[in-house]
Amino acid sequence: MTGPSFWDIGEKKKLLIFQRSFHEHTLRMRVVLSQLPLSVCVCLSAVLVWLFFPATLQNPLFLVFLLSQALLLALCIVVPWHRLPFASFLVIPVLDMVSIAFGREGGQEALTGLSVLVVLPVIWLCASGLYPKLAIALSFIGPLVIVWSPLFARGDLSEQSLTKPLLFPILILGIGVSVSVLTLSMVRQQRALEQQDEALKEALDVSTKQERLLNTVMEALPLGVVAVDGDGHDILMNRRQRQTHTLATPPDIEDPNESQLLVFDTDRTTPLPADRRPVRRAVLGERFTDQLVWLGDGKDQRAFTASARPMVDDAGKFAGSVVVFSDVTELVNALAAKDDFVANVSHEFRTPLTSILGYVELILDDPDVLDARSRKQLDIVRRNAERLLTLVSDLLAVRSGQIAIQPHTVDVAELVRGSVSSAEPRAAKAGIRLSMNLPDALEAHVDSSRIAQVLDNLVSNAIKYSPDGGDVEVAAWEDQDFVFCRVTDTGMGMNEEEQAEAFTKFFRAGGVRNSAIPGVGLGLPISKAIVEAHGGTITLESEPGRGTTFTVKVPA
């Protein structure tokens, strides 16, 4: 194959010149292009005169016209206009008017209407947008000088001779005014567009910087983040999430869909149903926090918590969701190890406690061995040993997730009265006013000892965490086959983070830890396990410094 010829290169350059917008050219090229229409017209006029009126070429005025036009075109090409004051090039159209005056006088016997060529420099002047008032004035004065100068040269200064050619400069003036108005309008539009373009560039720069910042933050996060649109398509995924996705990808499927990913329930073996998988829930518009799932298979399996927040458009319609995955494998393993430790220690405690209780009861069963004082002391030992054994049993039950209950028909109102009655001495000592809001009777099919344990714990906590006195109210009622018990205090309260952890084993709020209030953080987890064993729920509402409300709901 041969390379492009010189002719092809030249043609391409010519096309490039005329395909560019006028303002994209250099100043010198713009000056040349502005002069070029007049130069072409002059060349055509010269050809016509040479063909049909060769005698006119002997006229010195016409020759001056031709030579001056050639010189002006050469000046447009040669002069470095960008080094001169910006408006210097406007001298060219003014000199064009002078040149056309010579051409009109020297060639009017051959070609009539040469003076019309003045419209081209007038358009140049008015279209430049520079000195618009002066340009309009020259668009009238220039043509006027062209048509009057021969009259002054011949001395024909009669009123009729001066008035006769006035229509021509007036016509050119109209053209100049029109061009000037259009140019000024276009200049204003151009400035407005330039301002908009500048604003768009600034907005684009800001957007680009924010995008770079977002990408940097996303890539630096130790969390996996994926954003999906309303149709479930991924629109954003950081490096950590790509690794997480790879972990959940089956080895025999290159591009799996959501239902094919290796996502398992908390038991690590049961595949999670498609509608319960985090990304699917997010696509359906659900908002959730810390859903525990296991991803992958075999020894590489990892535990993740997933949280999702939906996105909405300007109309408030669902537009997608952002899902965050956090690797909590070490934490889950640590919690499992802690539970195993608690279970092992509890088993070790159970045997000696059982032995202690057995021997204490044997001693207490013999009425002749002990005096009254010793018997009272051993009663205290037995009571506390039984309490400790119950606590150990509850720890083991919470660890296994099973609390043994023996439901029977119970008057819950009477259980509440007993719990409040037992707590009255302690409440009076703490300066707390205890009150009840109960029906006369409230029957339910529950384990009385377990529900009493829950009530005792909630009332005890309400008194314990109201160190500055206040009010504690215990209420109970029945609604739609459910029995509700509510314990409300005006004590310390908890913030949102503490509320989220309130039912976690061994958790104690920051304000409690910094005080002298005793506790190990097991009362609420055990109460929750008891209530859930009845098929019920326990919830709380709290506000720091304004108190806490616990609500127990169990089937009647």
Give a structural overview.
The chain has 556 residues and is of the alpha+beta class. The chain is built from 17 helices and 13 strands. It has a 6-stranded antiparallel beta sheet with strand order 2-1-6-5-4-3, with helices on both faces. The protein has a 5-stranded mixed beta sheet with strand order 8-10-11-13-12. The chain has a two-stranded antiparallel sheet with strand order 7-9. Helix 3 (60-78) packs antiparallel against helix 4 (91-107). The two termini are 94 Å apart. The model has no long low-confidence stretch (mean pLDDT 84).
How is the secondary structure organized here?
Blueprint: H1 6-19, H2 27-52, H3 60-78, H4 91-107, H5 119-127, H6 132-154, H7 159-163, H8 167-220, E1 224-229, E2 234-237, H9 239-248, E3 263-264, H10 278-283, E4 288-295, E5 302-312, E6 318-327, H11 329-365, H12 372-400, E7 408-411, H13 412-430, E8 432-437, E9 443-446, H14 448-464, E10 470-479, E11 482-489, H15 496-501, H16 510-513, H17 523-533, E12 537-543, E13 547-555
Helix pairs in contact: 2-3, 3-4, 4-5, 4-6, 5-6, 5-8, 6-8, 11-12, 13-14, 14-17
